[in-house]
User: Which sequence fits this backbone?
């Protein structure tokens, strides 16, 4: 049996009894009461520790693994269960670090999004913080409060960071600091031991009692009617076109989407409603104001950038997907710039047949596989005498390019399953 003890979020250090082997991070081992003859393994890479655990289990010795808070929540339980089976584990959690951090901030957290940046690509955590008003980030080396603050400082969305440091330190080292993203970026932080709450102070408390935990569910529908957006002279992406564009963009929580030539920002707003972080790039000042007003009206956060593409795109973080709804004579240059930086897809809408070939070539030049359709629709419209006709909507070319999947190995090779390398415990 492997006993997994959650420690480090309050109370005295763990008492491990008659363990023959104790495994844990340096700070956990230092705080625990250990038998004098117990073997100690300080966690770094997991593979050597797992091998030692397996040897002790086979020999019949008691093994104790120390982990932060609730080790079943983004913790060591996953890799132990994968290696040894759930029946071999006796898990004894303490308070999850996220729960402690929200408690210190005096906030409920049933409506929070929790994302781990420990040993993972931090851009996902940044995008979630841009898109959601209440997020808890489990940090790690290279993805701490400073890096998170630096990425959010120029995001154009109002956020406050609450950094909970050295949670439950028995020596009284626990600290909770409230500061702006820019202030967090300017401060030196230790390598580990943080939970960062990223909050929109105006929406940090849900207005009603929750039934289902986690972030709010997705919208009831999408491809909203044009009347749902403020726009100028009907300069708004039509709902039928938006529906297909959203299907090809695939916006989701953790993504970043650019809406280039945003106009009213309808595509950016719809992507944000589906959980993605969104940046609307618009060359006119009144268009920027309109994008922000539409985002506010729909209760989402959209960063609006006043500038002309492709130059305005240079300083933006790389997107997962891009929608290009305008461009004129510069369309090919804009699409090429977007295609080179998009991680997944670019969608282009245009009315002029003469520009289709150039847009397809630009998608291909950016390393994407191009495709597209001519979208034609007709809407039901009333006629006098209580009858209905079909009113044609202007046809629109919807082009898209997708990043080709990386080729896999030619032939699967049989091998013995190896433990995953997840690094040190958070």
Assistant:
């Amino acid at each position: 049996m492997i006993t997994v003890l959650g420690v480090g979020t309050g109370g005295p250090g763990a008492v491990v009894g008659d363990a023959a082997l104790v495994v844990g991070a340096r700070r956990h081992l230092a705080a625990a009461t250990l038998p004098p003859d117990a073997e100690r393994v300080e966690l770094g890479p997991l593979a050597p520790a797992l091998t030692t655990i397996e040897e002790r289990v086979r020999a019949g010795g008691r093994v104790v693994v120390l982990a932060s808070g609730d080790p079943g929540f983004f913790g060591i339980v996953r890799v132990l269960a994968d290696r040894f089976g759930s029946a071999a584990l006796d898990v004894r959690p303490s308070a999850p670090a996220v729960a402690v951090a929200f408690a210190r901030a005096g906030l409920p957290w049933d409506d929070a999004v929790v994302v781990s940046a420990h040993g993972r690509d931090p851009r996902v955590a940044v995008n979630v913080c841009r898109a959601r008003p209440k997020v808890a980030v489990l940090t790690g080396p290279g993805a701490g409060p400073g890096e998170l603050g630096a990425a959010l400082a120029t995001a154009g969305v109002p956020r406050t960071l609450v950094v909970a440091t050295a949670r439950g330190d028995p020596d009284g080292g626990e600290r909770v600091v409230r500061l702006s993203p820019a202030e967090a970026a300017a401060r030196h932080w230790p390598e580990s031991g943080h939970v960062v709450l990223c909050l929109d102070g105006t929406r940090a408390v849900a207005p009603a009692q929750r039934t289902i935990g986690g972030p709010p569910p997705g919208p009831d529908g999408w491809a909203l009617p044009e009347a749902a957006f403020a726009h100028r002279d009907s300069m708004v992406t039509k709902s039928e076109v938006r529906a297909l564009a959203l299907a090809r963009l695939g916006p989701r929580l953790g993504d970043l989407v650019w809406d280039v030539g945003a106009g009213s920002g309808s595509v950016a707003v719809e992507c944000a409603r589906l959980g993605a972080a969104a940046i609307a790039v618009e060359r006119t000042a009144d268009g920027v104001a309109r994008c922000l007003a539409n985002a506010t009206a729909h209760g989402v956060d959209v960063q609006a950038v006043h500038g002309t593409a492709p130059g305005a795109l240079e300083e933006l973080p790389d997107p997962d997907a891009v929608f290009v709804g305008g461009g004129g004579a510069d369309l090919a240059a804009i699409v090429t710039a977007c295609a080179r930086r998009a991680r997944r897809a670019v969608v282009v809408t245009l009315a002029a047949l003469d520009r289709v070939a150039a847009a397809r070539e630009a998608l291909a030049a950016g390393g994407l596989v191009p495709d597209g359709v001519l979208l034609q629709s007709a809407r039901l419209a009333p006629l006098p005498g209580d009858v209905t006709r079909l009113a044609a909507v202007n046809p629109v070319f919807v082009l898209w390019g997708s990043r080709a999947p990386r080729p896999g190995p030619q032939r699967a090779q049989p091998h013995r399953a190896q433990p995953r390398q997840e690094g040190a415990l958070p």
Remarks:
- The longest strand covers residues 387-403.
- The chain has three domains: 2-95, 98-203, 226-403.
- Residues 168-172, 409-426 have pLDDT under 50 and may be disordered.
